[in-house]
Each structure stands twice: as structure tokens, then as C-alpha cells.
Amino acid sequence: MVDLSVSRDKIDEIDSQIVKLFEERMEVANEVAAYKRETGKPVFDKEREDSKLENLKGQSHGEFNERAVRELFRQIMSISRKYQYGVLASINEVTPFEKVDRLDIRSGSRVYYFGVPGSHTQQAMENFFGTEINAESCTSFQGVMEAVQSGRADYGVLPIENSSTGGITANYDLLLNYDNCIVGEYVMKIDQCLLAPPGTKIEQIQKVYSHPQGLAQCSVFLEEHPGMQGIECDSTSAAAQKVARDKDDTHAAIASRRAAKEYGLEIIKDSIQQEKNNCTRFIIIGNRQIYTPSSNKMALVIELPHKSGSLYQILSHFLYNDLNMTLIESRPIPGKNWEYRFFVDIEGNLDTPGVENALLGIQQEATFLRVLGNFTASTPSQFQHN
């Protein structure tokens, strides 16, 4: 039987040789980077790398080693590229964002928010901006986007993700259809309430109106009351407005306490969502690509080559540069069956070398990259009850 300690000593010796050879290879990579800097050649040469990988695979023996050698050198080449990206380029090649001291929020700033008065989004807007603004409600996500892009609004406020039901996919898709930029974020605790005309008894209720997210957040409550039929509305506040207008004691809405007060409805049951720490993340959008020194979160959208391992290769840029990814959401690419774009949030500022290096590498290797915003993340201490 082979002595284990002897085998381990051999492995240690081989690993030391690998480290030495790796460092020699990186010195040569530095020479390659200098040449590419002088000649303007791109870092990523797919044809050269594919040819090299096939050649190296052919030098190995056995099916397992062929796959392993190919993967090993794919990683080494990836590391070499990441080093070269850091040597060669500037963040200005990826994004034209302008650094400002702070957001320009003034008394009288024009802010559009999703929903009719009494919505959760209106409350989030006031928590973020205060009440000394010119606020305008809008019944569609698209309307908020258009108002900001056209300049009719300085800022817009939209829900983007709920802690219990996930991302609001319509808003992810809309972000790509406009030139607006995410400039802020606000996270707010959401308590969904069952609202009805004053004097209504819970056993009378047959139809419950709300936004699809509100119905989803309260699905367990609705299952416990099989006599209630959930019906979708444009927003939770629009549902409350409808119930108040109908004055039908068989109708109720799932909406906020604020909506109950706004429309003279009675809270039949409070906090009916299944997730008691239910929170929604709202984004603040503007029509300028700006960031501040305190910006510590970044939203990206990435499209990838449709081939094996492409997502793994792209995500490795975050790992290599020690960047924490806090969200990844996939959405189908219109007109391309079974191909997807990825919405990704990472921690970092555009001025950070690791962020610069990661974005430059992704730009070279993805088929599409857009920075949707670099902004200050909301923290749990900022949660507000509405």
C-alpha cells in the first residue's frame, strides 16, 4: 500500500511547481497586455482561445483528463483576461455615468408614482422625498417611465421586488425600453389589509379586489376563506377606490391602511399577508445617468452567448473581483426562443477598481451589457410601517 504521507508530499511538490509556472504565465500575460494596449487589440480572442483549448485537450490522456484539462485552462485563460482588463481600460469605456455630490431633490420637485392616491408606492415616495414635492399619481408603470424620460417628472417611484412574491417582472422589462436610470432605492414594510364599506361583516364578502401582487401576498388568507374570489386590479389603491365607489358590502379590497383612510373604508382585518415581515423594494428613477460617492449598489442587465458555460463565465467576474451579488433575475429575450437576459444587482461603486474590472470584462464577453443604475441601498433600519 502506498504511504499517504509520501503521496501528499508529492502533491505538495507538484502544486509548488504549478504555482511557479502560473506566475511565469502571468508575467507573459502582462507582456501580452502591453502589446494589446499599444495596438488596440481586444483582450478576448475567442478563436485563439478555442483553438488553444482543443490543442491542450489533445495533449491529455483519457476522457476525464481531456475534460478536466479543458476546464482547467479555460479558468486560467479567464483569470488572465481579468488581469488584462484591469491593466488596459477605463470605466468610461463601459458607462457614461456622471458623478454628483448628491441627488438634486428640492421643494417642488416633480415626482410621479405608480397607483392612485393611497397606494403603497405613494407612501414610499413620501418616506423617501418628504411631502414638500409636487406628486402626481399614474395608473401604469409605463406612464411613470414616460413621464420621467420626457422630462415632465424629475423622478419616478416604482415597486420592483417583494420579499415574499419576488420580482415585479413588468418593471424589469420596462427598464430596458427607456433611457431612465435607477438613482435610488427604498425598502418599506408592507401590511396588507382587508378593506370594505363601513359596517361590512367578513362573512358577507364575496369578491376581493387587489393588484396581482397583493392577491399573491395574501393567497393563504384567501384560501382560508373559500367564499372570497380574488379579482385583479391595476393597483391596490385602485381596488380600494373601486370598492368605495361601488358601496357594495359583498365587495372588499386588499390594500393599505392609508387607502382605507383615503377612501373612507373600514379595516375588516389587518395584516392578512402570509409573510409578516413582508417588504417591498421600490426604485427611484431619473433621466440622468448619475451616481454619488455613497452609491453602494448597482443594477445591471446582461445578455449572454447562447452556449454552455456562458453564465458561469460571466458570474466569475464577480467572484474574481470579490463582489457580492445580491439578486439575479432571468427574463426571456423577445424574439429569441429559450434565450434569456439576466438582471443582476451587485454591491459596489463605479469608482471601485473591482467594479471597473468586472464591468470591463463582462462588456468584452457578454453580447449585451447595460448599467441600469448605481445608487445607495436601503437598509433594514429604514423600514417604515405604512
Task: Explain what the structure shows.
This protein is α/β, with parallel strands linked by helices. The protein is 41% helix and 24% strand. It has 12 helices and 17 strands. The strands form 4 sheets. Strands 2, 3, 4, 5, 6 and 12 form a 6-stranded mixed β-sheet that branches. Strand 2, helix 4 and strand 3 (134-138) form a beta-alpha-beta unit. Helix 1 packs across helix 3, helix 2 (46-59) packs antiparallel against helix 3 (63-88) and helix 3 crosses helix 12 (353-365). The chain starts with a helix and ends in an 11-residue tail after the last strand.
Give structural attributes:
six-stranded mixed sheet; alpha/beta; 386 residues; 24% strand; five-stranded mixed sheet
Taken as a percent bin, the fraction of beta residues is: 15-25%
The chain-level mean pLDDT equals: 90
Order of helices and strands: HHHEEHEHEEHEEEHHEHEHEEEEHEEHE
List unreliable stretches of 5+ residues: 381-386
Structural class by SSE content: alpha/beta
The coarse silhouette is elongated
Biggest pleated-sheet summary: 6 strands, mixed
N-end to C-end Cα span: 71 Å
**SS elements, strand count:** 17
Q: Supply the number of helical segments.
A: 12
Helical percent range?
40-55%
Give the C-alpha Rg.
27 Å
